[in-house]
């Protein structure tokens, strides 16, 4: 039995909370969210489940005091800079951490100073911190690294994730710009808020797994433009408006493109799939037709990773350094 | 730079030796094979490469003396019982071990006494021992376990490996009974020599990853019968003769079949593929059309695993307990 505290009770956090109810050996003991609308409400009721007897707290100390929590599950920010103080507070409180923060999935190249500080505070407290999720954290980085294990040589890795965003949570649909005009899209893109976060981190994680020293990493982002009315999302998208994003992450050695990550998420997209192509010895392509629903899978891997995190050494770890999380309704170690 | 000694210089061992020549940071320092035909010959020439200045030795001591080897790569026996004395000798000599021995991939349920003895001798010597390969060791056990990481619930796992054995090494084609009459096949089956080894081990590895307590594990084996003359293998197979094997490994909880592994390897098989189906939340199917060539991939993963083995704790480990091997032409840790 492991006791966890949920930090962040947005749509993803609520999904994680619901999932814990199906897990024999994970027991929720507290929840934190800064939103005054949520403060004091019962966590179960807030998540659309039965009463759980756990009030959502606005700050950490009161929510964990005397409850013997082992692990904090953190689904708050995508930004490493914003999440750092939370992680430091949790580590100080001797809590192991599993977080869906995209920039935490592989921060060693992009933000090494913050990564080193998080690593240090975790080591000092003897706890482990992992950033995970379905993407970044699995489909476009960890899984290609796993697949590479059977290769004698690799020239290039290409990963494609195409998904119909109709089935994703509303904040996700908003995040990819569904329903924006070209002008709105371009403005939101400029602000940096309009994108799937993590492609650069995923490129770096693959490069690390393969011991490739990249000379540069590039990211591009463009709108997917609706060719006709799309009504399958949380709101109607008119012809000419953006239905989502198309992004590329690319890693180069010299002028050679060694890693290509292609991410396309749009409301009404027809052929969702996840594909890994390895050009090497052997060359092969692995495909999941229909693709993986990111909301379900991110909530799942976050809880699945707890057992592996508890077995890992202390410090800031990535998916490359922990044992296979694997699904486990209960812990068997 | 890691120094390795190759134990067993059959077709698979020779492939591993050739592969080391393409790896910057793996350096062969010795080779052992009990075959008097090979003793004293130069390892490079025996493997069809250039002269390496390494004579194949019939026994371990002289081949490693004063050469500072870190790791032994062992491709000798499929049987745990037969390989145990070799592993003990290597561990005593303070060598870490990566082996393609099928029964070593997950011996904890099938042969726990031997597994415990190997674990103890490795711990006592402070070395790590891993059984790996493409199957068992990757496609039908480790990879499904990895895939399960994104699931909130799993009801059933089915893995299918169908392959055209024409492209495999001759001992593999012989091992699956290609070219035998029905009577010869049934006799060889009775002797226990005619089969892909490892399905039971793979079932147990998946069960362990998912914390499922199985009530029973079953294996079946039948011939694939050639419907017409097949000439793509190492020898012609006439109509009515066996062209290969069809095997199932099944794991049950109560009467419920939770794990189904379907292995079919035959000369002339038309649609090679590797498929993982997970029935759960989410349900999905991952397919590699064309499948993975087992000889290439087994030699590759064996060398790729060295770096992860050197980072692991001492003792007998399985793929579930080490970090992702991943392809790496050089070590970056």
UniProtKB/TrEMBL annotation, chains A, B:
<keyword id="KW-0521">NADP</keyword>
<dbReference type="InterPro" id="IPR000846">
    <property type="entry name" value="DapB_N"/>
</dbReference>
<dbReference type="Pfam" id="PF19328">
    <property type="entry name" value="DAP_DH_C"/>
</dbReference>
<feature type="domain" description="2,4-diaminopentanoate dehydrogenase C-terminal">
    <location>
        <begin position="138"/>
        <end position="326"/>
    </location>
</feature>
<keyword id="KW-0560">Oxidoreductase</keyword>
<dbReference type="GO" id="GO:0009089">
    <property type="term" value="P:lysine biosynthetic process via diaminopimelate"/>
</dbReference>
<dbReference type="GO" id="GO:0008839">
    <property type="term" value="F:4-hydroxy-tetrahydrodipicolinate reductase"/>
</dbReference>
<feature type="domain" description="Dihydrodipicolinate reductase N-terminal">
    <location>
        <begin position="3"/>
        <end position="99"/>
    </location>
</feature>
<dbReference type="Pfam" id="PF01113">
    <property type="entry name" value="DapB_N"/>
</dbReference>
<dbReference type="InterPro" id="IPR045760">
    <property type="entry name" value="DAP_DH_C"/>
</dbReference>
<dbReference type="InterPro" id="IPR036291">
    <property type="entry name" value="NAD(P)-bd_dom_sf"/>
</dbReference>
<protein>
    <submittedName>
        <fullName>4-hydroxy-tetrahydrodipicolinate reductase</fullName>
    </submittedName>
</protein>
């Amino acid at each position: 039995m492991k006791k966890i505290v949920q930090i962040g009770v947005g749509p993803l956090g609520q999904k994680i909370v619901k999932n814990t109810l199906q897990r024999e050996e994970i027991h929720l003991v507290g929840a934190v969210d800064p939103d005054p609308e949520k403060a004091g409400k019962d966590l179960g009721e807030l998540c659309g489940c039965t009463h759980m007897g756990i009030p959502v707290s606005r700050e950490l100390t009161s929510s964990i005091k005397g409850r013997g929590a082992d692990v904090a599950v953190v689904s708050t920010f995508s930004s490493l800079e914003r999440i750092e103080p939370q992680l430091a507070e949790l580590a100080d409180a001797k809590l192991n951490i599993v977080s869906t923060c995209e920039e935490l999935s592989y921060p060693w190249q992009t933000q090494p100073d913050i990564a080193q500080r998080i690593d240090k505070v975790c080591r000092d407290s003897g706890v482990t911190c992992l950033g995970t999720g379905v993407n970044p954290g699995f489909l476009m980085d960890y899984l290609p690294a796993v697949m590479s294990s059977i290769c004698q040589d690799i020239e290039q890795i290409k990963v494609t994730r195409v998904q119909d965003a109709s089935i994703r949570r509303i904040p996700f649909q908003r995040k990819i710009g569904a329903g924006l005009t070209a002008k709105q899209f371009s403005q939101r893109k400029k602000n940096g808020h309009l994108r799937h976060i993590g492609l650069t981190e995923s490129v770096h994680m693959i490069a690390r797994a393969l011991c490739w020293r990249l000379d540069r990493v590039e990211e591009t982002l463009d709108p997917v433009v609706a060719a006709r009315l799309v009504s399958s999302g949380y709101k109607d998208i008119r012809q000419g408006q953006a239905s989502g994003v198309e992004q590329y992450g690319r890693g180069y050695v010299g002028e050679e493109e060694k890693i290509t990550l292609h991410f396309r998420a749009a409301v009404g997209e027809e052929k969702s799939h996840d594909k890994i192509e390895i050009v090497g010895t052997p060359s092969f392509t692995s495909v999941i037709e229909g693709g993986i629903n990111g909301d379900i899978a991110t909530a799942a891997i976050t809880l699945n990773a707890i057992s592996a995190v508890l077995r890992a050494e202390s410090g800031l770890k990535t998916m490359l350094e922990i044992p296979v999380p694997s699904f486990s309704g209960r812990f068997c170690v």
